[in-house]
Fold:
Amino acid sequence: MTDVDYPNCSITEMLKESVRRFASHRAIVFNDQILDFAAFDDQSDRVAKGLIRQGVQQGDRIGLYCANSDCFAIAYFAILKAGATVVPINLLLNPREVAYIVKDAGTKGLIYHEAFAEAVSAIRGEMVRFDPCICIGQNKSHESDLLWDQLPSSTGPVPELSINPADDVAVILYTSGTTGFPKGAMLTHRNLISNTCSIKAALHLEPRKDVLLVVLPMFHSFAATVGMLFPLLHGCTILPLPKFDPEGVARVIEKWKATIFMAVPSMFHVMCRLRDEFTPKLASLRFAVSGGAALPMETMERFEKRFGKLIYEGDGPTECSPVTCVNPIGGKRKAGSVGLPVPGVEMSIRDESGKECPTDQIGEICVRGPNVMKGYWKLADETAASFFDEWFRTGDLGSRDADGYFYIVDRKKDMIIVNGMNVYPRVIENVLHQHSEIREAAVVGELNSLHGEIPIAFVTLKENSRLTTAEVTAFCRKYLGRHEIPRKIISLSELPKNPTGKILKRELRRHGEVERGVELPR
Structure:
């Protein structure tokens, strides 16, 4: 681990220093409107004073229900300036799921965009009351809601608060909830600040020079920390986009000379299908960063050959703020590796007893450092179970090579046991991705009375493909053991994904998803 210096202060205090140094520099460009750091500070101050005037107190939880925009960032920092905790809401959840989160977090107030007014009305139907409830726009969910532009404020500065950076929670981020209900990861001011400093050191990003395009959802930890908190705390510029449109992304990169493009593998795949006239529009990029899911080698090679820009793959769970590792910028990249730990963060491979595993042996990836969450909101037992002493258990199975590079084999809960032998879906998926007629692939286990479990592959095929199960099986035999070869190959038009592009294997495990798909002909 390489040490990294980070200030012992709150996020809002660090923003003050950033505003002092970069007051007239562009902070956010949204819909061709530019906010410099001074203006961003003033606008978030105005909203913070409005929240305080409406009775928001230090320690309250305030929901944030908004797409990528300047308003998202303003609201996020305003909530922190008021001394409250931000509870970002996943925009793709249904009202009942949203209601669970705001109830579980004990959310007092809500800031929402008018596009979600109908959903907010439905949440109120679940007996959730917000005070205050602030609408960004004119289409209010309820007549008593306050309008963002008419939020009453007061003169003078925002009252100074006493924040304990190591203990006070800045944000509660709810995990995707692959099993049961989602859990709220409590990230403190120290967690997030330390991670932004690690990101700066690992990616070699420069104030006043780097411009980050943020199309990944800002309610998610990756975009929130790398794409929003880092630039605003370290003097860079962000270009938030509310939705992923590959042509729109290319145009924004060209117009505002973006230098960093963060995406998930599925986005890189789609970018490769742009018309030739869009290729030069990515010329300003220094490099791209991939996270959120395993990056298929074919996708990486196609993107890099097409645009002449390297992709650096990294990783990190929400509970770690989230960045833990990345392939070194300008250094040696290793295929299939998520790279080296970022400065200030330690990683280790450990067995079920918590003992460190030797080089190249598969175990659970564990993380230690100031970026690791305080714990799960109101879940003391789950918090205790997720640690080996100071080491956070990520739930990812992986290994470390002799050079210190980490490799993720699979999620622990996704591992399939066939006749008592461990089968890792990601190994099978990597093979399937190499087939010229397969666009995407995901493998899950199915209970089997004879073998315990068997692997089943879900695939999306390239246009006009007539691929058969026999052909896929023959291809897999070249690279996989008999117990690893999928027993069924099911074709879907699209694989179910969450907002960050991760394939939802829990959806694939449902019998209904199998019925909607079509098993490849034999």
